[in-house]
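call fold(seq) -> tokens
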Amino acid sequence: ASIQLAERISSGMEDCTPTLSAAFGLLKVGEPVRPAGDFRFGNNPGSLVGAANYQLALLISHRRR
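ret:
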């Protein structure tokens, strides 16, 4: 059942694009908010279904309810 669930959720994320951004580039009143070397990993979903499957995958992989 675990393998089938993982396959189903993975196929629901086919239109999602992983993204990586440098948090150092974020500015607040002209000053960097985070130090150099601080990164954020995220997802750019192509649909609401993709976003929902991505969130479900995060919850399951982190063993959260």
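Strands lie at 17-22, 27-28, 31-32, 39-44.
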